Amino acid sequence: MRYRRLVVLLILMIQIGSFAACAKRVEEPARMKKLKVITTLFPLYDMAKRIGAGNADVSLLLPPGVEAHSFEPKPSDIVKINEADVFVYTGKFMEPWAEEVINGVANKNLIVVDASRGTKMIPGIFHDADEPVGSLDPHIWLDFDNAKIMVKNIMRAFQLRDGTNKAFYEQKAKDYDNKLTELDALYRTTLAACKDKEIVYGGHYAFGYMAKRYGLKYLAAQGVSPDAEPTANDLVKLVEQIKKDKIRYVFYEELTSPKIAETIAGETKAKLLLLNAAHNLSRDQFEQGLSFFDILIKDLANMRVGLECK
Ligand SMILES: [Zn+2]
User: Fold this and answer.
1) What confidence tens digit (pLDDT) does each residue in 251-284 have?
2) Residue 54 C-alpha to ligand 1 middle, in angstroms?
């Protein structure tokens, strides 16, 4: 009897032991789970996705097709940020809501990346009366040197949270950096060979960094945010400028109504071309898996037409 009890006990112990072993086996992959990363704008999403590759589960806070400057997170977005390992935002000038959200986050392990840290920012054109004094142009990703700093900022956060894959993130960031170098060279040579050096934009002032970098003149119908409608006087001035400089193409922006650009073009017989500042993608573009580089290559092709480059 005592023997049988011993056997039962032994079997139980083995079962518990194997259960414990099973639990351990289940635990192992959990330790290697992917980094959960939340990004605000598309350029950050693209960078984080490529740096994290198979080791990160990256999502974009902006729903597809949504205009970036008017976006504010919903309570469910704040829950998502709270559950993430890494939260990447562009900076306080692009996402003025971010600071309050970050301060309210209960997850003390969350790594927050201000992607603008260390970038060289320039003043923009502001039309909003409520814009704080000293605001800077938030479209930092359109200067490819700044984009490289953003890539590094994201890489460092991934390395901090997942030290075992430090070299992996380093390599992926280097690949991204190399692609930015190639793109910059392509922009530089193409835009140096244009007959025209003036971009007239029927949207908000998003390409200030690019214009400065490649020595182009840049006129936009709105300030750095598309929230403020241009005044009739702004439009009249723009139309006069187009006529005076014999501009043949007016560029329009992504994801908002091209009404302003169409009005200007209608007044001047100029043709329309898209210049996509890559804040966000449409649902179709998401489904097609468009990259930041795809958008910028297409922009350059349109500038080549619009500015009559060789
Ligand atoms: Zn913008």
Assistant:
1) 999 988 888 899 888 899 999 999 999 999 999 9
2) 30
The pTM (predicted TM-score) of the whole model is: 0.87
For the segment 162-209, what is each residue's pLDDT rounded down to a tens digit? Answer: 999 999 999 999 999 999 999 999 999 999 999 999 999 999 999 999
Q: Cα(7) to centroid of ligand 1, in Å?
A: 73
Q: How far, in Å, is the centroid of ligand 1 from the Cα of 1?
A: 81
Whole-angstrom distance, CA of residue 231 vs CA of residue 194: 31
CA of 217 to the centre of ligand 1 (A): 18
Q: How is the chain classified by DSSP, letter by letter?
A: -HHHHHHHHHHHHHHHHHHHHHHHHHHHHHHTPPEEEEESSHHHHHHHHHHHGGGEEEEESSPTT--STT----HHHHHHHHH-SEEEE--TTT-TTHHHHHHH---TTPEEEETTTT----------TTSPTT-----GGGSHHHHHHHHHHHHHHHHHH-GGGHHHHHHHHHHHHHHHHHHHHHHHHHHHTBS--EEEESS-S--HHHHHHTT-EEEESS-SSTTSPPPHHHHHHHHHHHHHTT--EEEE-SSS-THHHHHHHHHHT-EEEE----S---HHHHHHT--HHHHHHHHHHHHHHHTTB-
Q: What is the mean pLDDT of residues 245-251?
A: 94
- In terms of residues, how long is the chain? 310
